[in-house]
Structures are given as C-alpha cells and as structure tokens.
Design brief:
CATH topology: Sufe protein. Chain: A
Strand order of the largest sheet: 1-2
Shape: globular
Number of strands: 2
Strand content: 5-15%
Number of helices: 7
Helix content: 55-70%
Number of domains: 1
CATH class: Alpha Beta
Distance between the termini: 22 Å
Largest sheet: 2 strands, antiparallel
Order of helices and strands: HHEEHHHHH
Length: about 140
C-alpha cells in the first residue's frame, strides 16, 4: 500500500466516526479552517482552478521527489475539501498519485452529498492534482 492509499484509508476510517452528514460537513469545514496561510501574491488567475464555482487557488512544487501542494478557497466547504485533498496528496510521490484511484470520493459518498457545482469543483481539483503529478513524472 502506498502513502496515497494509506492516507485515503485513514480518512475513510476517520469519517466512520460521524453518524450523519451534518457532522461530516462540519468536520470538513473545520478542516478547511486549519489550512495554512496561502501567499496573497499567488492569488492570481494563473493559479486559479477552472471549473470551480467558488474561487480556488492552487500551487504545486517539487521537493525532494515529492509534490507539495498549497491551496485556498473563498468558500468554507471548498476549503475543507482542499484540506482533505492536501492530506491525501501533498508531499507524495507523483507516481503514487497517478497510480492510486481517488476511492475516497465514493467511499465517503461525497458525490451524493455535495451539490453538483461542488462535485464539479472537487473533480476539477483532482484533475489539477493529477495533471501536476503527470507533469512532474514527465520532467522526472
């Protein structure tokens, strides 16, 4: 099991502690509140994720063979989804990111419980993460 798979499994286990979706939403929002500061100078159109209804800025950099992500949104629930994605994908090997399906989305039933626009935004963020991983692998 690679680090991405392990992070997904841990997240899925964590969410099993919540009985209903209101508690899960609150937990996701709380995770988003704990995101590290995002550099104000990087809030540019070039760093925006297309396909998200709210504004989402995303940065990727390579550090010692691992992809590091920074991101922020102007919406609470989206910031929480970013926190989930960073927990799973940040500081991981690009190849592990590319080889591991995003099983947590269906396991947590995110698509059923997020609005269509938020589901599209989540898909857009996942696409960006995989695009960065693909570029890092090619540059390799």
């Amino acid at each position: 099991m690679n680090e991405v798979q392990q992070a997904q499994e841990e997240l899925i286990e964590e969410f099993q502690f919540f009985d209903d979706w209101m508690d899960r939403y609150q937990y996701i929002i709380d995770l988003g509140r704990r995101l590290p500061e995002f550099p104000e100078a990087e809030k540019t159109d070039a760093n925006k994720i297309k396909g998200c209804q709210s504004q989402v800025w995303f940065l990727a950099s390579m550090k010692e063979g691992r992809l590091h992500f920074q991101a922020i949104s102007d919406a609470a629930i989206v910031s929480g989804l970013i926190a989930v994605l960073l927990r799973i994908y940040s500081d991981r090997k690009p190849q592990d990111i590319l080889e591991t399906p995003a099983d947590f989305v269906s396991s947590l039933q995110l698509e059923q419980h997020l609005s269509p626009t938020r589901s599209n935004g989540l898909a857009s963020m996942l696409e960006a993460i995989h695009r960065y991983a693909g570029e890092a692998t090619e540059a390799g």
